[in-house]
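FORM 12-B: Structure-to-Sequence Request
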């Protein structure tokens, strides 16, 4: 076998380099940033480095040593980055309410005191005599944590380090994740119920009829998602085209509630995601010999029996691939539920956007995004297995 010249290998690397750079900058780097945000929590440890070392051996069942108190005073006195200090205080206040005022009062007292003066923290604020504030400070020191991943599934660690359920008042992430999977499953079912007959019809006809059917499926893919969602926002209103047409036909007396609810979300998302169901099924159906259904009829099978025993089993790989593909795309939807759905129809992507944009809590946004990523990867592996299999086992 002849060796590839070094010049040709270099030319190949130069051609591939832009693609590698694109993937690294726009895919791997954001992905790594999201993963690290979910498990890294070093903001407090960087602001209080001496306290992090001194408090490491302290346990809540013993008094707080003087060296720990002095280390905290020294860290507060030497802190120059006020933004980093504010972020650290925000992190501590999220663990125990009242930490913000406690640190503000303590910082002011330390800065007003002489350089070498001894600071009695309990004298500045009696809350420094409570072990729970020191325990929260100690728990926030390690650079890596599972706090955000646990909070993403409504869990937390108690004072003993055991994983326990979050309090019901703030435990909402599981509910929203369940809603996300439910809406995605409903959209997948609707797309399958419409997509399978449509793909069968497209595979059965030929010529311009097939082209028109496929064009009708592909056209939505060439239109902006925001435009399609806005169109459904107009169509589904009480005075929209759908309700007016139904009233004009005499089928209803009052407008149907089709918007700002679960119905509107399912309708709009099903329209957007229908091509992802039709195309995998169609790609499998055109590979099935046309003489199988007539052969089944010649052996006494009726149309429904022939479909159930012959055509459906052979089209199952495409159907399952379409279902997985639609479900994977649906669980990450944000624009359509935000515009067409109501308050009880927002999906997990809306919560991620809330943490990232409204509260700047990148750690929680990264944790929720990481969970969504793991679910998507698992489904993608199943989809890849089905898309490379011509037939399901046992069919």
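FORM 12-B RESPONSE
SEQUENCE OUT:
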């Amino acid at each position: 076998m002849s060796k590839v010249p070094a010049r040709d290998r270099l030319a190949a690397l130069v051609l591939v380099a832009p693609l590698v750079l694109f993937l690294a900058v726009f895919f791997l780097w954001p992905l790594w940033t999201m993963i690290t945000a979910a498990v890294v929590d070093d903001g407090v440890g960087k602001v209080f480095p001496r306290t992090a070392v001194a408090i490491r051996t302290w346990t809540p069942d013993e008094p707080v040593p003087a060296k720990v108190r002095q280390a905290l005073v020294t860290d507060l006195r030497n802190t120059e980055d006020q933004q980093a200090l504010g972020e650290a205080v925000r992190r501590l206040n999220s663990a125990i309410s009242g930490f913000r005022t406690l640190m503000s009062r303590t910082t002011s007292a330390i800065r007003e005191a002489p350089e070498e003066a001894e600071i009695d923290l309990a004298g500045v604020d009696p809350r420094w005599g409570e072990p729970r504030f020191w325990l929260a400070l100690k728990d926030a020191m390690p650079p890596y944590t599972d706090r955000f991943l646990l909070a993403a599934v409504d869990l937390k660690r108690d004072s003993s380090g055991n994983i326990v359920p979050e309090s019901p008042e703030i435990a909402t992430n599981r509910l929203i994740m369940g809603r996300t999977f439910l809406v995605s499953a409903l959209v997948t079912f609707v797309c399958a119920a419409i997509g399978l007959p449509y793909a069968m019809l497209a595979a059965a006809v030929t010529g311009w009829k097939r082209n028109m059917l496929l064009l009708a499926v592909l056209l939505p893919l060439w239109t902006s998602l925001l435009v399609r969602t806005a169109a459904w926002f107009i169509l589904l209103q009480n005075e929209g085209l759908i309700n007016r047409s139904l009233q004009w036909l005499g089928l209803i007396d009052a407008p149907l509630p089709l918007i700002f609810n679960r119905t509107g979300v399912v309708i709009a998302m099903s329209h957007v995601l229908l091509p992802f169901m039709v195309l995998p099924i169609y790609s499998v159906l055109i590979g099935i010999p046309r003489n199988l259904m007539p052969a089944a009829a010649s052996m006494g099978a009726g149309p429904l029996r022939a479909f159930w025993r012959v055509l459906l089993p052979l089209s199952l790989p495409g159907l399952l691939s379409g279902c997985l593909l639609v479900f994977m795309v649906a669980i990450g939807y944000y624009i359509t539920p935000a515009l067409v759905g109501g308050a009880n129809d927002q999906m997990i992507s809306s919560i991620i956007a809330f943490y990232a944009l409204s509260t700047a809590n990148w750690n929680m946004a990264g944790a929720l995004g990481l969970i969504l990523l793991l679910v998507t990867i698992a489904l993608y592996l199943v989809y890849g297995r089905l898309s490379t299999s011509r037939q399901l086992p046992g069919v």
